Amino acid sequence: MKEALTKESEIDGDGAQSDFAETTDQYKVKLSMFEGPLDLLLYLIRKEEVSIYDIPIARITEQYLEYLRAMQELDIGVAGEFLVMAATLIHIKTQMLLPRDPDAPEEEIEDPRNELVYQLLEHQKFKGAANVLHQRAMMEAAAFTRASMEEDTDNPEVAATVFQLFEVFKEVMDRRRAISEIEIARDEMTMAEKIAEITLMLNDSAEVSARALFERARSRREMVLIFLSVLELVKGLVIRLTQSETFGDIVIMKRET
Amino acid sequence: MTVDELKPIIESLIYVSEEPISVKQLATLLEGESVLDIQTATDQLAEEFNARGGGLEVRQLAGGYRITTRPEFSEYVRRYLKSQPSARLSLAALETLAVIAYKQPITIPEILEIRGVTSTSAIKTLLDRRLIVAKGHKQVVGRPMLYGTSKDFLIHFGLNDLSELPNLEDFEDLMTS
Amino acid sequence: MTVDELKPIIESLIYVSEEPISVKQLATLLEGESVLDIQTATDQLAEEFNARGGGLEVRQLAGGYRITTRPEFSEYVRRYLKSQPSARLSLAALETLAVIAYKQPITIPEILEIRGVTSTSAIKTLLDRRLIVAKGHKQVVGRPMLYGTSKDFLIHFGLNDLSELPNLEDFEDLMTS
Hints:
The complex is a heterotrimer, with one copy of chain A and two copies of chain B.
Chain A: H1 2-11, H2 24-32, H3 37-47, H4 57-73, H5 80-97, H6 114-140, E1 157-159, H7 162-182, H8 191-204, E2 207-209, H9 210-215, H10 220-235, E3 239-243, E4 250-254
Antiparallel strand pairs in A: 2-4, 3-4
Chain B: H1 3-16, H2 23-29, H3 35-51, E1 56-61, E2 64-69, H4 74-83, E3 88-90, H5 91-103, E4 106-107, H6 108-115, H7 120-128, E5 132-137, E6 145-149, H8 151-156, H9 168-176
Antiparallel strand pairs in B: 1-2, 4-6, 5-6
């Protein structure tokens, strides 16, 4: 286990044990190295060489706050979690100062530090586990598998996970939103309105050019809408379509009743 | 290095190489070793490796060496390759699948509307791989076919049911970070 | 088929498989052969293959078998493939991964509670690298997403299954000793 600890400080960026650095830059680097309030507390406990089971809470709280001040002065963004921990420490400190109920049996008096100690121990365990994982990954990276058997560079394929599926969906929706924003505040016209519009046009003139009709469309959506409306009118026997030559313009005419 | 020390190194190099690896290439990698030793080691390695009567063999191909499966087991290898549901999809197919998964049941024109490009060949791929299925016709003009995800889709993505698909809220934090 | 006849077939199947191949998968491909025989053949194959002292070894990973080069030759293989060891995980990502590995399935708020800091960017990294996967929603208010480790996690860290993770309690006395 001793070994693991030494190794750990290696990936830790050698921060924790050595003395406080002198220059501002080093100071900055060191402070921003604490992953979170638990890391900072563990560092202080180690630095002060105190027992994790009997933390001198006043001393550690004072040091903790000093570090936060330093971080603020050096303009290192102090994340909210650090402040929450500061509040917790001060709360524990106050509780420790409260006189104990002299009548309460010894075993019923709960040490206000207990929860924090538990959290620190848990955190420490996961740091140890992270260190072992790191070492295992290094070892595993030394074993190689066979080369891939085929490669299709023209059509890069994606081995998908549910997460990827979601990400891809989000990309599609974002792309679509971007496109529709370009289609400047398009009319949210309904198909019924479009049908009415076409019928009205046919009241004014006997023949309407389908090409002209489609060319008026301002968006893909409107084009689809026109297309569906025309189909609907044909099906409802309201209009008929004629085409004088292949690939020629289609003429829309009102059907005689 | 002795010839015996060279052999396992050469074996690992042949194994990871995408193309048959030549003695000349090996000599470059094993700087300082004599080409003759490398040639001897490679020959011995091939002989010993193949004398095992295992499923693999070191073969000389296109001026180099490579490890392949023995031809007599090709039937099993083929069986394996066929058994692979081919987890991989082209980006077009994946996009189409994502749209179908989140918007099902959905028609091809609606997918076109969302993706902005036609998806017919992607749809075909997804149908072939049984990741999506037809779910009847939509009762609108033209009665287009509706598509939705299949049971295989759930199995493939390790979901018990569609409610387990991640939603936007799940990833809101992750997306902005 | 006898166990001896099975061995070379299994060897070729382990070789072609993209991922570690399990005895169960082998049994599907070798229809009609007993699972016990297949298990015996695979065990014997691994033992014999590895006893050769060659550059390759049959290893048990993520519940299956895979052939890899021996770590002691990695220097040559790296030189040849010009491969850089893949980007290291940050300490934050490793610690988050450790919490997920031991406490899975776990939600982001639960991870926050244990680590004392938000881990969203670490989670995103781990998802991108496919070391963790979403495991459905927790049936509590807000239905937060649950996360767990993936098959790639086992492969990346050279584990056969999660029981091979070191005992968390072993790390308890690091500070106090």
